[in-house]
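Backbone shape codes:
***
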Amino acid sequence: MREVELNWERAIKVWWSLVWRGVLFGGIAGFIAGFIVGFLGAPNLGGLAGLVVGIPIGMWVVKIILAKSYSDFRLTLVSLDD
């Protein structure tokens, strides 16, 4: 395994991959959760429901990003133990 240089181009690729997936999936899940809770008669809790659903969606998006292969690199977790 060859380590590649961390540069702005690669950092922006990872950042953009994280942002658009987080906004898309988090937005959809938050909208659905907020709509359901609001429809059930608790409109004040709609935003909270969206937040509660958004946290696991955000963790799922990070997991997707860690498994993704980019054009010239992929992210890898390396143990610090020898």
In short: The chain is about 65% helix and 0% strand.
